[in-house]
Design brief:
The complex is a heterodimer of chains A (about 210) and B (about 200). Helices cover about 30% and strands about 35% of the residues of chain A. Chain A contains 4 helices and 10 strands; from the N terminus they run H-H-H-E-E-E-E-E-E-E-H-E-E-E. The longest helix of chain A has 21 residues. Helix content of chain B is about 35%, strand content about 15%. The chains are: A alpha+beta (about 210), B alpha/beta (about 200).
């Protein structure tokens, strides 16, 4: 097939998609519905990375609701009030862990960000300081290093050892903490066991 | 060799020059020194000829320890200082302003009145103060920023955003650029130490 210079990127993309799907059909390669729908590269990369690293998580990771830009991540056996979201917003990507209570973001626990920048065949993070620039062979490798691996560390080092979720309200300003020991009761403080069975208190987070 | 972005072009080279404005960023509790918000604002500051610093406080959970680190920094030569802080970094910058006497404070969703913070209502000491808050901020309600701005006669912007303000980054950048330009063009901020209390007539 001749592809003239007059074609738009959209037309070329459509054409290639037809060609590839045809190829898959010819060769008998399966293209599952879920794979076809995982269009954002970062979501595909996270899925692949998670499949390869699932056993490294001290707390199992469960994938929740997904849109084109956001993918909710929950933790198996852990209260749903602690969750993460993978955000792929154009070129920028982010993994944020937060505490949510009564339908509101109570506090943020961790935020990992990267802005992949292409240089030839390599990638680096444009958010990093120049003196700390590392180059990666692919955008996926950069995501692994800047988002997924730090997320794994956070889960294993901060979330896994904790037993309690502490939610404080200071006249509208809110904060959350993970605690190994049960903290003292205080006014305007909610203490929840991190284990899932005791956390069906907040109907908005069910 | 990887090309420099505009944001990184100034950095150390410019820090060797005397009489340059210095902008020090303080990141929030959960983030790092070079998140997208700070990077965006740092680009703007560097484009206006400022040297920028963004210390890494991510190993320090307590804001008082972060303030200590900020105050212990060996600062490059500068003719005026601007402190920029986000969330807990807003508290850090405000408390540190009492000793650093910056020409200006730019506070984004500053975390005032939080438990575990030594000062419930820190008093700023800066020639110009600007507060930016989000109406949809669940973590630190906009009322906190509004109250602070009213008390210290600060410039106030409340945007349609949440605590992180990332969804309004271009708008935030525009506000910061205008504020910084005003500070850099203002003759009364060259001499540091303009007291907010004096401004209030206290």
């Amino acid at each position: 097939m001749e592809i003239s210079g007059m074609w738009t990127r959209h037309q070329m993309s459509h054409c290639l998609r037809i060609l590839f799907l045809g190829k898959f059909r010819e060769t008998g390669m399966a293209v599952t519905h879920s794979e076809r729908k995982l269009r954002p590269r970062i979501q595909r990369a996270f899925m692949a990375w998670l499949d390869a690293n699932r056993s490294s998580f001290a707390v199992p990771v469960q994938l929740g609701r997904r849109t084109g830009k956001h993918w909710k991540i929950r933790f198996g056996g852990i209260t749903p009030y602690v969750s993460a979201v993978l955000i792929g917003n154009g070129t920028q990507s982010e993994l944020v862990v937060a505490a949510e209570w009564q339908g509101e973001c109570w506090d943020l626990f961790a935020s990992f960000e990267t802005l992949p920048c292409r240089y030839g065949a390599l990638y680096f993070c444009a958010l990093c300081e120049k003196s700390q620039h590392q180059v990666f062979g692919s955008r996926q490798e950069l995501w692994f290093d800047h988002l997924f691996a730090p997320f794994l560390d956070w889960v294993n080092q901060k979330l896994a050892p904790a037993n309690w979720l502490v939610l404080d309200d200071h006249g509208g300003a809110t904060s959350a903490a993970l605690s190994v020991e049960r903290p003292d009761d205080e006014a305007n403080r909610i203490i929840l066991s991190l284990s899932e069975k005791e956390t069906h208190l907040d109907p908005k987070n069910k | 060799m990887i090309p420099r972005t505009n944001s990184e072009a100034a950095g150390l080279e410019q820090s060797n020059l005397p009489h340059q404005p210095l902008v020090i960023f303080a990141h929030g509790k959960e983030s790092g020194p070079w998140g997208s918000k700070i990077r965006h604002l740092a680009d703007i500051a560097q484009a206006q000829g400022c040297t920028v610093l963004s210390p890494d406080y991510s190993d320090l959970a307590v804001p008082e320890a972060r303030i200590e680190r900020l105050l212990a920094l060996e600062l490059p030569p500068h003719d005026r200082l601007v402190l920029v802080g986000s969330s807990m970094g807003g508290y850090v910058s405000t408390v540190a302003s009492r000793q650093l006497h910056p020409a200006a404070l730019f506070l984004m969703a500053p975390a005032f009145g939080m438990p575990g913070y030594a000062q419930a209502d820190p008093v700023p000491d800066a020639g110009h103060i600007c507060v930016v808050h989000g109406w949809r901020d669940d973590v630190v309600p906009a009322e906190r920023g509004i109250r602070f701005a009213e008390r210290y006669k600060a410039t106030l912007h409340v945007l349609d955003a949440d605590h992180r303000l990332n969804s309004v980054l271009p708008q935030l950048g525009g506000l910061f650029a205008d504020f910084l330009e005003m500070v850099l063009n203002s003759t009364d901020t060259i001499a540091a130490g303009y007291s907010a209390q004096a401004r209030m007539g206290q």
